[in-house]
Write a structure and sequence with these properties.
Layout: H1 2-40, H2 48-55, H3 62-96, H4 109-122, E1 127-129, E2 137-139, H5 142-165, H6 171-194, H7 198-208, H8 217-236, H9 238-245, H10 248-253, H11 258-280, H12 286-298, H13 302-327, H14 335-356
Antiparallel strand pairs: 1-2
Helix pairs in contact: 1-2, 1-3, 1-13, 2-3, 3-8, 3-11, 3-12, 3-13, 4-5, 4-6, 4-11, 5-6, 5-11, 8-11, 12-13, 13-14
Length: about 350
């Protein structure tokens, strides 16, 4: 009996890992299916099989090749990578701050990045203002725009970290700090809009909307590199985040350099958020809701939570973008409108759930 009991432990652990691996596989398949569906559906419907043939270099017609490869595929990939980056950043922030309400949007980092990008476009001249069917603003210097967004988001992240380190600061205090930061940065953006002319004002309002339709292949490559790179960084620190979930003192006892891990985690999260905002505008609630959705299914082990959050974020933003394009067809809603409608009730539910506890 003693040997049997010993043998049951590895078997149970293997089953435990298998369930997590199956969940990750199901999420990956769902994200792949949603990617094909996002490319297939639209004003001109292209069957999924024809989409796959076009991706394999065997397009049924030149029209299909243009629609799939030049128009819809970069939009779908931009949604996938943006969702991955925002969701991974939210999962990391929730761990390093030990705050279940942490995310780029609720902590004001998205709004700070939007202010920095707006400043670069309006004052530093990194964007060419124009009205067209493609977009109201063309970013002529994406490096300057992203750099400005990154600096502002990093300042906001630094203030949140300072509040987290302040003695007696609770998760509620950090969220309220984020609310104040978001309001301040929104006011700064409004000041820029106040001094803009009519064309610039229309362009800035349109640009602030989170919308993947403005993304081209250049933005896709940038978003992909940043999203996958940040996800890889967070996954490499999964053990550190697991230790920090048990408390800072416990983590230090296990050899984790808590302050260094916290600052680097917020730094990378701010970078990923800044790139997404600079490329697509503000997209809220993805980084808050997705980590909580997968945490309830897969648990708190960041070796699995982080990749699952990435896949869930990408799948959710793909589904939201597809629905936004179809709900008022032939007109397309910005995807940020739909994520706000989905995320705001979820955010309220999280607050009520914490209050009941």
């Amino acid at each position: 009996m003693h040997h049997l009991a010993q043998g049951e432990i590895p078997a149970a652990y293997t089953a435990y890992l298998t369930r997590k691996a199956l969940f990750l596989g199901a999420l990956a398949l769902a994200a792949a299916a949603l990617l094909v569906m996002a490319v297939s559906l639209g004003a001109v419907r292209i069957p999924a099989w024809d989409v796959l043939r076009t991706l394999a270099g065997q397009a049924a017609s030149p029209r299909d090749a243009v629609i799939v490869l030049d128009i819809r595929l970069p939009h779908a990939l931009a949604a996938l990578f943006a969702g991955m980056g925002l969701s991974a950043s939210g999962a990391a922030m929730q761990s390093v701050l030990r705050n279940p309400l942490g995310s780029p949007f609720t902590l004001g980092i998205s709004q700070a990045a939007a202010l920095g990008a707006s400043f670069a476009v309006m004052v530093l001249g990194s964007g060419v203002m124009q009205s067209s069917t493609v977009g109201a603003v063309t970013i002529s210097n994406p490096l300057l725009t992203t750099g400005s967004a990154f600096v502002c988001s990093l300042l906001a992240a630094g203030l949140v970290i300072a509040m987290a380190r302040y003695r007696g600061a609770s998760p509620e205090v950090m969220v309220l700090t984020g609310v104040a930061l978001g309001a301040f940065c929104t006011a700064g953006t409004m000041v820029l809009q106040f001094f803009a002319d009519d064309v610039q004002l229309a362009a800035m309002v349109f640009w602030t909307f989170g919308d993947v339709a403005r993304a081209g292949w250049r933005e896709v490559w940038i978003l992909g590199a940043v999203a996958l790179g940040s996800a890889g960084f967070f996954l490499a620190n999964a053990w550190n985040y697991n230790a920090m979930d048990a408390g800072d003192e416990t983590a230090r006892g296990l050899g984790v350099r808590v302050e260094r891990v916290r600052i680097l985690g917020m730094f990378v999260s701010a970078l990923a958020t800044a790139v997404v905002v600079a490329a697509l505008g503000v997209i809220g609630f993805v980084g808050l809701i997705c980590p909580h959705m997968v945490r309830r299914i897969i648990g708190d082990d960041h070796r699995y939570l982080m990749p699952a959050s990435c896949l869930m974020g990408g799948a959710l933003l793909l589904a939201a973008d597809t629905a936004a394009r179809l709900v008022l067809a032939p007109h397309a809603l910005p995807v940020s409108v739909l994520t706000a409608f989905i995320g705001a009730p979820g955010f309220i539910w999280l607050l009520l759930r914490r209050r009941r506890r």
